[in-house]
What does this fold into?
Amino acid sequence: MTMAAREDSTSIVLDHGSGGLLSHELVTGLIAPELGDVHVGRMEDSRLLDIPPGKIAMTTDSFVVDPIFFKNGDIGKIAVCGTVNDLAVSGALPLYLTLALVIEEGFAIADLRRILRSIRDAAREAGVVIVAGDTKVVRRREVDKIFLNTSGVGVLPPGAPALGTRSIRPGDRVIVTGELGNHSVHILSLREGLGYEDRVVSDCAPLNGLIRHTLEACGDHVRFMRDITRGGLGTLLNEVQREVGRAIEIEEARLPIQHETVMACDMLGISPLYLANEGNLCIVVAPEAAEALVETLRAHPYARRATVIGTVKDTVGGVLMRTKDEQLKVVEFLYGTELPRLC
Amino acid sequence: MLQRCRYEIRGVVQGVGFRPFVCRAAKQHAVVGWVKNDTRGVVIEIEGSPQQVTAFIEEVATRPPALSRILAVSRVSQEAIERRSHASFGITPSDHGGKREVLITPDAHVCDDCLQELFDPTDRRYRYPFINCTNCGPRFSITRDVPYDRAHTTMSGFPMCSACAAEYGDIQDRRFHAQPIACWACGPQVSLLRNDGVPLTTSTPIERAVELLREGAIFAVKGIGGYHIMVDPTHTRALERLRAGKHRPHRPFALVTDSLADAREFAVVDDPEARLLQSVPRPIVVLRKRSPEIFAEAVAPGQDSYGVMLAYTPLHHLLLRGNFLALVATSANVTSEPIAFRDDEALRDLSGIVDYFLTHDRPIHVRVDDSIVQSVRIGGESRTVMIRRARGFTPLPLASGAPLIPTLGLGAELKSTVSVAKEEAMFVSQHIGDLKNYKNYEFFKELTEHMLRTLEVRPELIACDLHPQFASTRYAEELGHGRLVRVQHHHAHMAACMYENGLQGSTIGVTFDGFGYGTDGTLWGGEFLLGDYAEARRVAHLLPFGLAGGDMAAREPYRVALALLSAACGYDRVSTLPLPCVTSCGVESLKVALTMLERGLNAPLTSSAGRLFDGVAALLGIRSHATFEGQAAMELEQLAATQPGPDEPLSFALIQRPDGACHVDWRPMIREMVQMLSAAKPDRARLARRFHTTLAFMVRDVCMDIRERTGVEVVVLTGGVFLNRLLVGTCHDVLQQAGFRAHSHREVPTNDGGISLGQVLVANARYRLSTSGALG
It folds into this structure.
């Protein structure tokens, strides 16, 4: 088996993850060169890092998206963007990532190369470096093609406002920066062959640049930020509402949604409120700064459709949506997941 | 020899002229003493000879005023006395302390005596829009608390003038102790506002409103339990504007008319229906349109019937009489929100829809919509069936026949009601509406609290639906007191129907509706349950099919048609079938829907009979997209009703499953339909009729199968699908012919309006079972 596998140099074999020579070859011959300058690991058990003054922010995330390649991204890009975005929304400056790969035996090396390049490009854009890594290979069906994990370290400079739900006040405005649901619809359509995948593409992007841009423009007025991922805006707002204890009212007519996404959602019978993005922010901002912030956001390529979509009320209550036909509906906390494996 | 006796009378005995009636009876039978209201009802003390006392109480118990309802007359004391201690008989002030057990009266339509005065130019209340007496007028909707006295109603802000006070105090007067008594001098007044809230300067607001209505203006008119939106039903443009404003393209609007004779001008009314129209609650009655149709098509587009009610407030009569044959009178809501009843709220919410407000300054305390009933022929006799139980019926209790644990039933979600059990009575709330709507949900919470407060019930059992995501379920979980009992949706339907028909013991529950959460977590809706109040088992059901897009399939019946076709003919064949539901579907939609069904992508399986009706309606080319719940199924029924006789059933099969459950396989029926629809000139109406007959035969055959195994021959037909008159009639007929005793609903709605009552019954039965088990 090993002999046969060795001869097949186009795909991953179990020994690529055994810790032996083949593992070494994989790291030094493929992973490190492909990652290029974003990879500063040195084959040590751990890496010592220089940290500028401030508080350290840390996060981790695993990525299992199916399919692994899609329009405007792949599992590698998501793995970088997801972790970078999680750091950035807390107000921190993302600095370092780790990268762990769990690869299914037989996975094409060409595909791995493609994923690594995309990790490199995303890390370059986000301005982060990969400081440690790990590669495991498992038998067929023990994972589906490839799973990734990234952990991230960032720093919150001294004096920078720590963003969080605690600073949210009644009257604050709720902004979203991009079109809702595109990532979910794109992935679902690709996976099930529904035919929307060419018109609705993933919005996967690192948002730390946009967030820095936002904070520089009106950092004093921004209360809270989070990237809209699994569970969508509906789940995010419900989480916020539970912590804040005030009603949040949004307007359906103001939600930025691509026309084709609306069509796809109608057909599928799903609500864009619960669909995932991979490059979309929800920002809560003081009312006096909302319009100016929207203007600023729209100047950034990742936030051209930034819109004020709602308000934090001074009444107790849940998340409510004023629908296009003027009804007030409860936006419920989703009971379970609607759709599987989107990131 | 003389006696002194004290009696307590319980039931609906306040606000109905009960004390004046008692005074008259006392005078007639020459007894002395007093009568008073207390929180339990009415208390009477009388002194007289034993014969006089007996004759008096006999009169009181058997010939009470029209609006009253006596639940119990009990003698609490009796003693022999030497001489009378009272000089005469009179009314003494009410007691306010203690336990509250008095029942509040439903609102009643304006009575004939008041109506006569209303149009009598010599009467001091000539054309006064708030004329009422002890026999009529608002009650439940204006009552804040019990006992029912003016101070506890929203009339408390209107001190009586001397003329009214004299009538109020005169035992001979029809208005003796009529709490909402009022006149031009002292009572509420009508005003006419523009939709921005600015009053129009006019001394005759009602007459001005009539002129504006004639010109096609849309009005919000404040009534008893909320606002109506009114327009002239002959004014097509006004109707179209209203439909656009309410986002309600097709759902029929109700009509209000001045008299039965007027109703007969535009609708066909048989005798039972005439009695319904004229009954005290003045419900909306579903009546066949008379042809040719004299009103605009937009009143009830695509329907063969109108919802019609007779005028029930003086204001309705003033607007209608001599002016309009009828007016559209639809709940003043913005699609599925509660009818507006607070004036500021109405102004804010309706100003975008209406042109004017005809309002008044008597506040509404409890919102209550119009009730809706229809008359159904079952086994050759007419029967009243409740579609929406609200104004005129609530808050009258239903007797349980046995003591109940204090219980709160929180209902389902879409047509929600709340029920409270107290001692031997069950109080079902008025229709609340769809709880997904936030305002309805707020009303649901308010009403629950109002009922528990006015009935003074602290529930020990909290019954809710099994569905984990219903707002009512979440509310039940958050209440935090009482024992939570989760009741499967269709079991609750079945229990409500068993109760209404006085059934006990093992029963077959044929439960056909849109959907309910099953004990296995799947979506049920075409169920045959076997059991009683405490427990029920699913013994058979319709063969499940996919709902492509979940709830979306209810709005777009063509999706269901595709599911039925895929199951009956195979996924690959569907796109080649020459049927309108396939060919009118865009290539992309067709592909996506079939993919969803084949791969189970947001296409949960359901055994729903309601959806089966929708799907067949789409299959027959009747309707592929619905704009209101049940539209496709209603149109299918209408088409079927044009055909004589039950005709022959189509093919179907019963499949016995290894687990003992039986699947009703409708695929042969679909294949037969496809074949007939592919013919040159398919007879769709006949096919629609035969579909109804097939369903009835499915019901019969499954019941026979169950009877063979268990010997049970009592059947209840329940669930929203049985609003279908043709289906319920045919099912009764075939079941009776097969030797079953079949029952369906009357006063309790067969749709989800009956769920809260069923929950109360099931929770109590389970509780009894568990406690008797513990004792035994």
